[in-house]
Amino acid sequence: MTQPPSLLDQIESPADLRRLPLTKLPELARELRGELLRVVAANGGHLASNLGIVELTIALLRVFGDHDDRIVWDTGHQAYAYKLLTGRRQLFQSLRQHQGCCGFPTRQESRFDIFGAGHAGTAISAATGLTVARECMKRKGRVIAVVGDGALGCGVSLEGLNNVIESTNRLIVVLNDNKMSISPNVGGLARYLNRLISGPRYNRLKGAVSRTVDRIPGIGGWLHRAIHRFQESAKHMLVPGAFFEELGFRYIGPLDGHDTEELIATLEKLKPLDHQPLLIHVLTEKGRGFAPAEEDPAAYHGLGKFDPQTGKPLPPKPPRPAVPSFGEALGSHLDKLMRGNDRVVAITAGMCDGTGLSEIRDHFPRRFFDVGIAEEHAVVFAAGMATQGLRPVVAIYATFMQRAMDYVFHDVALQNLPVVFCLDRAGVVVDGPTHHGIHDLAFWQAVPNLAILQPADGGELQAMLEFAVELERPCLIRYPKTDGVEDLPRGEESTPLSLGRAEVVRTGRDLAIWCLGYETKTGLEAAGLLAQSGVQATVVNARFVKPLDRELLCRLAEQMPVATIEDHCLGGGMGSLVNGTLTNLREARVRNFGWPEDRFVPWGSPEKLRRQFGLTAEQIAESIVEWLHALYGEESSQG
Questions:
Q1: In the chain, N or C: fewer CB atoms in 10 Å?
Q2: What residue segments make up the domains of the chain, in order of their start?
Q3: β-bridge partners, 70
Q4: Could you read off the pLDDT of 234-267 as tens digits, one per residue?
Q5: Pairing status of strand 562-569 against strand 590-595
Q6: How far apart, in Å, are the Cα atoms of 253 and each of 55, 184, 262, 372, 448?
Q7: Residue 134, number of CB atoms within 10 A of its CB
Q8: Which is the catalytic residue, given 55, 375, 376, 503?
Q9: Does residue 286 carry a catalytic annotation?
Q10: Is 229 an active-site residue?
Q11: Among positive and negative, which fits the CA dihedral 536, 541, 546, 551?
Q12: What end-to-end distance do the CA atoms of the chain give, in Å?
């Protein structure tokens, strides 16, 4: 006997959602959580934040799901339920998979994704721009910015809030407060005040009283100001919205973010109000409906595949040795360094666990600083510390560090301050173009005074960290996201680390393969395959992008062709530096392997993306064989 379709099966658009009786919405919320849990368990992704925003998403689409309305998400990883309710249920099954559903809103995927977002802090500014543009074009509908997961404290969010009142009266900001943003004032009184101040009677009465008082001869203006001061004083004592009110918003809240009927009723009352920007404060529970995520929301923020019954991560297949990732290696090595040097301090920007610094936070609470989603502040904060003799180590994802490039240039490099930047996720990652760390070297290599290093393994990261802390200049260490980093086979002794010097890890007579960081492993694998074709390759671990070991490079290029391998786009990466260095070298032959220039690499597993773009060791070896045959065939025909 066939089972009747679920409620979720019946929804392809917000119009379908509006046809459901209110009494069915709690059941729909349960189905959504079940689907989120099932798909994220199978594919990995952001879980806790999406479990917490289910009822709020339902309410927003129920009230603001008209063709004329627009919803902008910030941060974008809280939009999974939104995708499921806007015609993408089948696509959602391929969440974060190669050529599948993006883990963030993206304009290419659906008309409902009006503004793409992978980094925090963009929604308020974007939604203000959308609102003003629609006013200029005399279009109907409302624009809603949904802000959560700490994005409100982001510098660009505050800039946007500050500018709203100067730009429009029609914007609605929904603050999804899941204990990652501001402290709420809750209880019956706040709930009553919210119902009161969001109701049309109150707003009409307030406007009528203001107009009447203003017309009283002699004392109207004074009385209006006195009433306003009393109202503001009372409100500041009773509700947590004073900050927003001072910026020109009408504050409504806090609301229970899991009471669908209350949310819908309030949003429907507020929808017609357009005389003042609105900020609606909604309290949600991150991880709601899945006990492990409720107990530890941070652990279930972004994760790989896991058992949906227990919440435990699935073991990798096939099993591999327990070796640390680059991030874990950073935490371990930095811990030792800080124990022996009390001038070393650690800074991160809202990514303590992701950058491997959780033990540093516990062991050195007075020398560890998490500044929140404020990369620009982190850089200038570190610069100030460096002027007083401290050695700040700033750990941020490579893609997020792009936001602070100007501050590295202006506040660190220009003053030649010894700040160490450790950039995790420097390479392609599963989340796609918003998170790939493959476009930054073009800028970093142009910054004077900045040394750029990239370790091939965990042991080398330790050596580079120790080296960088002693260097009297700013230093940047990049490394990719890895499950584990086994040390390279170097024989009895490794080459000591020296500024601007590369390391030869394999010698051959036919070809020199220059590798950046962890791609040395790819280069060694490719060299092994080339040997089977009779090609003996020298493999070089570049170690430094800046200063590049030009002496070794030119010496090898005079003897043999050169190939470069990097987990970076070809434009502005190490390959382009190598090409520029060898431009004037007679008969230099170079072949570069990296991500395509002037193109965004899509989302999906790094392994499948590598195969798609010809960057596996096997594909590189095959390409090199064909290239060498073409080179030597052309030479013989000319000779």
A1: N
A2: 8-184+249-293, 187-239, 326-478, 503-638
A3: 143
A4: 554 445 678 888 889 999 988 999 999 999 999 9
A5: parallel
A6: 16, 9, 11, 24, 49
A7: 18
A8: 375
A9: yes
A10: no
A11: negative
A12: 79
- Exactly one of 286, 425, 506, 610 is catalytic; which is it? 286
Residue with token string 């202006």: 410
Question: Which residue out of 62, 403, 478, 546 is catalytically annotated?
Answer: 403
Task: Confirm if 171 and 247 have CB atoms less than 8 A apart.
Answer: no
**DSSP state, residue 402:** G
N residues, the chain: 639
Residues whose CB is less than 8 angstroms from the CB of residue 195 and which lie 6 or more positions away in sequence, other chains included? 266
pTM of the model: 0.82
**Could you tell me where the DSSP H helices lie in 7-101?**
14-19, 25-43, 48-52, 54-64, 80-84, 89-92
Q: Say how far apart CA 1 and CA 508 lie, in whole Å.
A: 69
Tell how strand 250-256 and strand 590-595 pair up: unpaired
- What are the Cα distances from residue 424, in Å, to 159, 318, 373, 445? 27, 25, 16, 17
Res. 183 pLDDT band, cuts 50 70 90: very low
Architecture per CATH, 503-638 = 3-Layer(aba) Sandwich (3.40)
Residue where the block lists tokens 């060791």: 617
What own/partner pairs with CB < 8 Å and gap ≥ 24 does 214-222 have?
A: none
Annotated active-site residue 271? The verdict is no
pLDDT confidence bin for 108, thresholds 50/70/90: confident
Amino acid at 475: C
Tell me: domain 8-184+249-293, CATH 3.90.220.20, correct? Answer: no
Looking at the domain that runs over 326-478, which CATH code has it been given?
A: 3.40.50.970
